Amino acid sequence: MYPKGLSSGTMDQIRNVEKMRLSDLTTYVKVNGKSLRKKIPAFDGIKIAPEKYLGSNHGREGVQRLTKDNKRKLSAAVVSRPQELGGGDVLLISSSNPTKNDWLLPKGGWDKGEDIQHAALREVIEEGGVRCYTCPLFRTLTTYTNL
């Protein structure tokens, strides 16, 4: 399930994260209204993303862009830091579905007026809480199948 050659310390950290994740997924669910987001008091030097980036802009009904065959247009991003800042890692988002036990790339539908890169950058901010400064386009898929 994990890459070969990870140190025992890294595996300990992964196990701890997985335990916390299982607990969080049963505690913080839409049904009971609890959220993983919490208010962090302001402090000197804090940088806060504008509120417009902290949630879905519109929802799915009537405003997301669709393909000619009526499928949602999706963007995803593979995000890493530059090598000089410790790159080689990839940003993954924990799935909110407790039955999946998945880690995912930040992704989501295009909003009206967006192109593939703008949608991908917005999803990275919304889902990953980080800001990308560049987003080179590697590949566009017009059709996909969920496996």
Can you characterise this structure?
The protein is of the alpha+beta class and 147 residues long. It folds into two domains: 1-38, no CATH class; 42-147, Alpha-Beta Complex (Nucleoside Triphosphate Pyrophosphohydrolase). Helices cover 22% and strands 7% of the residues. The chain has helices spanning 8-27, 116-128; strands spanning 74-76, 93-94, 103-104, 107-109. A hairpin with an 8-residue loop joins β2 and β3. The mean pLDDT is 74. Keywords: Hydrolase, Metal-binding. GO terms for molecular function: hydrolase activity; metal ion binding. It holds the Pfam family NUDIX.
Gap between N and C termini, in Å? 17 Å
Write down how many β-strands occur, each being a DSSP E stretch of 2 or more residues: 4
Largest sheet: 2 strands, antiparallel
Rounded radius of gyration (Å) = 17 Å
How would you spell out the order of helices and strands? HEEEEH
Give the class-level CATH name of the largest domain: Alpha Beta
Instruction: Name the poorly predicted regions.
Output: none
**How much helix is in the residues?**
10-25%
Quick one: overall form? globular
- How confident overall, as mean pLDDT? 74
GO molecular function: hydrolase activity; metal ion binding
InterPro entries: NUDIX_hydrolase-like_dom_sf, NUDIX_hydrolase_CS, NUDIX_hydrolase_dom
Domain Nudix hydrolase: 70-147
Protein name: RxLR effector protein
